[in-house]
Amino acid sequence: MATFNSSEFLTTLIALGTAFVLGTAIGFERQFRQRTAGLRTNVLVALGAAAFADLGIRLYGFDGGTRIIAYVVSGVGFLGAGVIMKDGTNIRGLNTAATLWCSAAVGAFSGSGLVAEAVLLTSFVLAGNTFLRPLVNYINRSPIDETLTEAEYRVIVTCDPTDASDVRDLIAEELEKRSYPIREIEVVLEAEDHVELSATLIPTAVSAKELDAVAAHLEKNPLIRNATWTVSTSA
């Protein structure tokens, strides 16, 4: 009790209360959409960042707070990496990780006594996760035009596990014959009775008819169960 200061305590209460309310607002939207990091996670990230920032300022002044916030930024980066998952050829959780990072920034603003800035950042985070969603859906539904975007093409083949090595050579031979350079051929799915190989092409001008012909020719080989190709925008 000898170190208790009512004025500083009130400042900390306001900082943590602000972080709690704003973290709840961000987390509610994430929980509503059933994301990996939901309500409690975003609240705790915001609270933790606010507590560390407030503690640094109280102990060492604003210079101390700045140093601690720098550690908070890197620490939340490791936390965000935990919600990023690889699902076949897709990466999931990037938006959730970015939201956690923003929740930490909201907490840092709150812990530094910049309440108005914390509210402003929260409004932008919520706007990014809600108002931009229709625009993202519209863009995703639009047909991919390789002349306007850098498209990534993959030739996907399914075969028996024992034939994977030979099939890998067949894919490379077929694509090289048609002058399509390959970035890599990797196993994207491995089961007891089959494996799925994916050949990623180096971004270049690609003819859909030619890739149809590649897939059709590969499917005629007795070692291959089925073959197809996909296109997506690269990161």
From TrEMBL:
Key words of the record: Cell inner membrane, Cell membrane, Membrane, Transmembrane, Transmembrane helix
Localization, UniProt: Cell inner membrane; Cell membrane
Domain MgtC/SapB/SrpB/YhiD N-terminal: start-end pairs: 16-137
Cellular-component GO terms for this entry: plasma membrane
Classification via InterPro entries: MgtC-like_C, MgtC/SapB/SrpB/YhiD_fam, MgtC_SapB_SrpB_YhiD_N
Predominant cellular place of this UniProt entry's protein: membrane
Domain MgtC-like C-terminal positions: 153-229
Pfam families with a match to the protein in the record: MgtC, MgtC_SapB_C
Membrane-crossing segments per the record: 43-61, 68-85, 105-132
Topology of this chain in the membrane: Multi-pass membrane protein
Task of the protein: Virulence factor required for growth in low Mg(2+) medium and for intramacrophage survival. May be involved in regulating membrane potential by activating Na(+)/K(+)-ATPase.
UniProt-listed PANTHER family: PROTEIN MGTC
Family: Belongs to the MgtC/SapB family.
Protein name: Protein MgtC
